[in-house]
Amino acid sequence: MLRLLGWHTRVGEIGVRLFALNALWLLYTLRGGVVAGVFPATAAVHAVLRRDLMRPDDPHREPLRVEFGAAWRAELGSANVIGYVLTTAWVLLLVEHHVLTSGGAQGLAAGVAALLWFAAALLFVLCASVWMLAVHFDEGPLATLRRAALLALARPLTALGAAVVLAVVLCLYYVVPGLVPVFGVAGPAMLTSAQLWRSGVLPRPAREPRPEPVPAHSHL
Q1: I need a labelling partner for 182 at 20 to 30 A (CA). Which of 103, 105, 162, 174 fits?
Q2: Which residues touch 53 (CB under 8 Å, ≥6 apart)?
Q3: What is the pLDDT of residue 47?
Q4: Which residue numbers in the chain have pLDDT < 70?
């Protein structure tokens, strides 16, 4: 009974934290005028979740809003480059697919359209993992995009697993739209981040060594 109660309490705590993260995501998206705020806010959500996964019981963490704001400012430039590179790629794929299929794709055009679907699937896989990679590794935006592409090629099952998790959550959001204002970006971010973390592709930081015990007579 106590175990069941503890499980329910833990689920409630996670739900409240995700709601708070989603509210902060919306607040800082608006703070950046949407166009300059949405991608840093997305990166900040992943930065907080990364800290949750690394050191869930760290007593020295700052309040959530302070930690989120610091991550948003730190990722402001890099996250916008990553976000708009991916957005441009999506726009180009959609426009090209529309051009090829608007007149009825046949022959070579049909083959190119099929390749575009494959490119869209690969791009979706990149989007599922790129934000956790961006906040976990201290490198530039282009290096992060290259790392996400390498992950998809070198560890396809891991990258595909994150993409499947993201797709399932998005389908759940479509079926139950009331979940969107509650969990929003934070929900899929938590699940994809946990999947990547369990896979072992993200190196864990070295734990700080515990201080050696001092003998009682050492001060004499």
Answers
A1: 162
A2: 193, 194, 197
A3: 95
A4: 1-8, 56, 103-110, 204-220
Under a CB-based contact definition with an 8 Å cutoff, are residues 50 and 89 in contact?
A: no
DSSP state of 31: H
Find tokens 């726009």 and name the residue: 91
Q: Environment class of residue 61 by beta-carbon count within 10 Å: exposed (0-12), middle (13-18) or buried (19+)?
A: middle
Q: What is the pLDDT of residue 142?
A: 95
At residue 38's C-alpha, the angle toward residues 122 and 139, to 5°, is: 65
For 96, the token pair is 């090209």
- How far lies 37's CA from each of 30, 65, 79, 181, in Å? 6, 15, 9, 18
